[in-house]
Design a protein that fits this description.
The protein is of the alpha/beta class. The protein has 2 domains: 19-185, Transcription Elongation Factor S-II, Chain A; 188-479, Uncharacterised protein PF01937, DUF89, domain 3 (Rossmann fold). 47% of the residues lie in helices and 7% in strands. Strands 1-7-6-5-2-3-4 form a 7-stranded mixed β-sheet. Helix 13 (291-305) links the parallel strand 2 (281-285) and strand 3 (311-315). Helix 9 (198-207) runs parallel beside helix 13 (291-305). The longest helix is centred in the first third of the chain and has 23 residues, at 63-85.
Amino acid sequence: MTPMESSSKDNDAEADPSTKNEAPPKESKLPRSIQTAFDAKYNIVDLQTPLNAFMSGQYKRSFAYHSLRNRLPVVLTNVIDTMTREKTELVAQYASNDFEKAARDELKTIIGLISQLKYELQTDKAFHNFKGAEPDQDDWNNFLGDLPSGERTFYRGCSLHAECYLYRKLYSFVENSIFLKGYDYFAKIKEQALTGSMDDVLALTKYTRRPERTPKFFGELLKINLWSNCNDAASDPEAAAQMLNLRVLKDVEATNEYVLVDHAAEIWRCLTTGNLKKPQQVDFILDNAGYELFSDLILAEYMVEQGMATKVRFHVKAHPWFVTDVTERDFKWTLEYLSQHADYIISLLGKKFMQFLDEGKFELAPISHFWTSPHAFCSMAQTDPELYSSLQLSKLVVFKGELNYRKLLQDVCWASTLELSTCLRGFLPSNICVLRRVKSEIVSGLAEGSSQALASKDPHWMVSGSYGLIQFVDGAREFGY
């Protein structure tokens, strides 16, 4: 068994069907005649995603097709089931006794809207404009209106646009409600992602209490952080993830062969050279709540205490997103939970993180709807120049996880040997670090022949989550660091 096999997601649908990223597409259990009829009706072609094309559900052998066909409908079904099962609790929480019937009726309406969204997903219907009180309504409607006519449905459009649209539309149903404003469909999943991994939290805490200011230890922290994504509660079996957490801590170097690109030395040099007396900011574009967020806080703590950053800014999502992505509420809840934990060591560390917030060593960045938009990052300078300018103040911008990687690369299947800097298409607000488990066909910066060698060993290497990337793009020449 390889060190990464415990993170394999072959059984995700059984382990936790609220999936955000999954393992190799499985054979459908539908009769072949039904499959053929579906493919014919919605113009699905039995091909992999072509080189230089964006990921799309119209390619049957793509991760996009698997996601749209098998994964996202289950996400919506789980939301419906949860709201139906907990309707009494939700009504009691969000409405007074005087409005109980009205709240129940509204809850029923929202469940109906989610069912309709699921139907539209499964029948490749067109995207609809947003017509409520969404703060980002104009941006979304302009984006949808500018799409080519042939790319405005779930399967025919870019899968990045389709998935972002689905999660944005899903939240709009409660956002525009009377009683359920602020409800997070996935809050309990995210809380369990932390509370269910406290043994690993304690182990990581103890592992990092005597840190060394060396490139080797820093590289270990980057790998620990990279593999903490195996705790993605939206897609990874909890028991397997926890087994991997302890194995990584026991022997970090055993994972080296599964890190396809390792620029840890370049990232170390970026943060330890130059004018270190000058205030130095690092930005984290966060991914998942739970153990992964805790690992992010540990890495940020190290940067601050070792003089590599005077401040670390954390960017969270404006609303519930892709099941387990961190929101402001998740971030604050995590610090509160840690600081009040029964274990003295964990509680002390939680209080320390909260003190860092008070002192300005940690900072929550202003909420930006860009992170929950369908835009690729190469459009940030035009669509959100204020956000782009704020990132230019940073010495290093750390992008976490699969979705951020897909947005960095515009969801395009570039040649795997193409340099990441080229694939960014001009997006370079500062030095860039990427920590990502490979879960889709989107990848760049590999050595010549690496992709072919991996494919011969494991045909599903791109979607298994068993391989990772620690990549760096140097922005120093442009910004004079």
